[in-house]
Amino acid sequence: MSFNKLPLEVIEEIFQNLGIEDMMNAWEAVGLDGSESYWGKVCRREGYNKVDGVDDTWRSVVNRNLNWRFRRFVRREYVVDENPHFPNRLHFENTRILTKDPEVPKLGVLNIISSIALRFCR
User: Fold this and answer.
1) Are residues 83 and 61 in the same domain?
2) Dist. CA 110–CA 54, nearest whole Å
3) Which ranges of the chain have pLDDT less than 70?
4) Cβ contact 20:41 at 8 Å
5) CB contact at 8 A, 109 and 77
6) Which structural domain, as residue segments, surrounds residue 54?
């Protein structure tokens, strides 16, 4: 019997006993994905929290935390045209300002999610 032919609830019960890295590899190996409630339990166990406006599913919370842990983030540079005197901080948990050049307003950003949504704080 193929492992991925088992009911999803049975697979979730087995996989919940794995460490987070092994669990992610196991889900990839069977070609299935756990339910939203399953990923919520994983996040509570690991101490992961949703970030408002960023995470829409518990699975994305797990991915974001693993990307940060394993340094699989994207480094981007943004040139700010409109306001050369932009604030020194951004409202976004997983971004860091790396450079600020007074001649050419520029932000260096580390992004660990697939889409970027930056909001300036005042």
Assistant:
1) no
2) 15
3) 1, 55, 73-122
4) no
5) yes
6) 3-69
